[in-house]
Amino acid sequence: MIASKAQHTPMEEKVRVLQRKLYLSAKEQPKKKYGILYDKTHRWDVLKLAWKQVRINKGSAGIDDQSVDYIDDFIGVDTFLQEIQQELREKAYRPKPVKRVYIRKENRKERPL
């Protein structure tokens, strides 16, 4: 059976084209240093697709304890993404530190997740 090609919306297709161009450029020039990618990350289609993928993957709350459901129900996705977009445009976005969690291994030691 031949797998059918995934159907993407025009918005998703534009983001996929961007991702592919960046990927091919990086593969072609492995030592190339990429400067700030703010001009790519604050695009509305990139942010919307990123949010869609977070929803599909059932993303959990981050260090700020804002869950996907909380954002959906109380803040509003568009408002949330517009705030992030504005911070990225102004180059003022500063992500919070990653939440560190440790998992106990069989030998009773712990490893970071």
Describe this structure in words.
By secondary structure, the chain is mainly α. The longest helix is centred in the first third of the chain and has 19 residues. The chain is globular. 2% of the residues are buried. The model has no long low-confidence stretch (mean pLDDT 85).
Summarize, please.
This protein has 113 residues and is mostly helical. The protein contains five helices and two strands; from the N terminus they run αααααββ.
- Estimated helix fraction: 40-55%
**Morphology:** globular
Radius of gyration: 18 Å
The order of strands across the largest sheet is: 1-2
Number of strands: 2
Distance between the termini: 38 Å
How would you summarize the topology of this molecule?
Elements: H1 10-28, H2 38-41, H3 44-56, H4 68-75, H5 77-89, E1 102-104, E2 110-112
Helix pairs in contact: 3-5
Fill in the keyword field for this structure.
113 residues; single chain; globular; 5 helices; two-stranded antiparallel sheet
